[in-house]
Amino acid sequence: MAEQHTDYELEQVPAGARRGFWTMLAVMLGFTFFSASMWAGGTLGEGLSLARFAAVVLCGNLVLGAYAALLALIASRTGLSTHLISRYAFGSRGSWLPSALLGGTQVGWFGVGVVMFALPVQVATGIDTLWLIIAGGVLMTATAYLGFKALAVLSLIAVPAIFVLGNLSVGMAVNEAGGLGALAAIQPENSITLAVALSTCIGSFISGATLTPDFVRFAKTPKIGVSTTLIAFFLGNSLMFTFGAVGALVYSESDISQVMFAQGLIIPAVLVLGLNIWTTNDNALYAASLGFSNITGWPKHWIVLVNGIVGTVFALWLYNNFVGWLSFLSSALPPIGAILIADYFLVARRRYAALEQAAFDTVNWIAVGAWALGFAAANLLPGIPPLNAIVTALVVYVVASYALGRAGARAPAAS
Fold first, then answer.
1. What angle do CA 285, 240, 178 make, to 5 degrees?
2. Residues 6 or more apart from 20 whose CB is under 8 A from it?
3. Which residues pair with 219 in a beta bridge?
4. Which letter, b or e, does each residue of 335-347 get, where b requires 16 or more Cβ atoms within 10 Å of its Cβ?
5. How many Å from the N-terminal Cα to the C-terminal Cα in the chain?
6. Can you give the pLDDT at residue 43?
7. Residue 224 to residue 13: CA distance in whole angstroms
8. Which helix (H) or strand (E) holds 138?
């Protein structure tokens, strides 16, 4: 019976459970259909000309896509989650640090997301907010509990619906503005610098990109894992930014569901809002539970239930009091991905021992120190915080590993 619930949270995903291109693409697009990216797109749309907006989104998603694709390559080659990959770089117990950070922030965002769904639906329908929070929390927890198969089925439904209905709404908005020419002619009243714009674009989803291995480990081949990740970040994330920018310019509202409410498309708006947040929230809860499973050794499906209850019960409190802290804590996540990339490609040179054969350190203090310096760089140095974090953590980890003789010290995987 236990096999029915396994999502290989503490082991490699076997070849028989790997998925093909279209399933992986649907899951990754559902993952990148993220409301915060629409808000970021609204900020960019109000502060940049259309040409600069396109350039920033292209460059920003190039960085996001490259970062996520490198993590996807590691995951699809090893079949391991972010948290199990972390054991190689951080150590068996050192991996508890990234697992706790990733798990804690994602449970927090789950609670926030439930309220983000409930409040606008309450305004549109008059249904009591508390009941909407409970219903949303239960449904989103259910798909995370059922595991990757349920995430795939939901994404296969949600992605086409969001794509079609969202583009219908954007088309109506462009017509209302007088066409693309009129939209392109709009000049921002309060311009933002390219550095700020790039920071907004990259920062909007780089924390989520760090969780890429939790999903891409199910890809049948590295080619499928990397290609679907790149498409999702370029197409999915760019689409969210465009939805937000057009809505902000025409209606002064960056959330596509709110734009649809303004257009009188009530039922489509509820569908898009619900599916958009659902595909993000169940992925967040799923990834968080993989992290806590790494720490406790407990089965993921029971941890999903606990996390879902905590996120739902404290949803309003998290929404009202914790968003700022979650944003701050989320800057702690990009250094984790940078260290995983550095360890696999530059320190271990793409040669990991199989998980069951690997001899892990208890704690690799080089990784912990590199993470701390990356986190500090994100919050203290000028420039683009996520890039500061990634570059600092990566350079410190590689230099220290070679200086202290730790590079290539681990046994290679059996061929």
1. 155
2. 220, 224
3. 19
4. bbbbbbbbbbeeb
5. 33
6. 83
7. 15
8. helix 129-146
35-47 and 50-78 helices, crossing angle to 10°: 150
Q: What is the mean pLDDT of residues 92-97?
A: 97
Backbone CA torsion sign across 109, 133, 115, 215: positive
Can you give 239-304 as a three-state secondary structure string? HHHHHHHHHHHHHCCCCHHHHHHHCCCHHHHHHHHHHHHHHHHHHHHHHHHHHHHHHHCCCHHHHH
Confidence of residue 166 (pLDDT cuts 50, 70, 90): confident
Does the pTM surpass 0.85? The reply is yes
Domains of the chain, by residue range, sit at 19-403
CA pair distance 334, 411, nearest whole angstrom:
27
**CA separation for the pair 230, 51 (Å, rounded):** 22
Q: Are 99 and 368 in contact (CB under 8 A)?
A: no
Instruction: Kindly tell me if the per-residue pLDDT of 72 is higher than 90.
Output: yes
Q: Cα dist. 362→98, 298, 368 in Å?
A: 14, 19, 12
CATH topology of domain 19-403: Hydantoin permease (1.10.4160)
Per-residue pLDDT at 326 exceeds 80: no
Name the token pair of 394.
Answer: 């990566």
Tokens of 37: 């990216």
Rounded-to-integer distance, Cα 286 and Cα 280, Å:
10
Quote the tokens at residue 352.
Answer: 């990991």
Angle of CA points 96, 8, 280, to nearest 5°:
75
Banded pLDDT at 80 (limits 50, 70, 90): very high
Strand partners, 19: 219
| Separation CA 117–CA 356 (nearest Å) | 42
Q: How far is Cα 384 from Cα 393, in angstroms, rounded to an integer?
A: 14
Average pLDDT, the chain: 89
The span from the CA of 346 to the CA of 250, in Å, is 47
* Structure confidence by residue, pLDDT tens digits, 191-249: 888 888 888 888 878 888 999 999 999 999 999 999 999 999 988 889 989 888 888 88
Q: What is the distance between the alpha carbons of residues 36 and 38, in angstroms, rounded to a whole number?
A: 5
Residue 170 pLDDT exceeds 90: no
By C-alpha distance, which of 104, 68, 74, 105 is closest to 87? 74
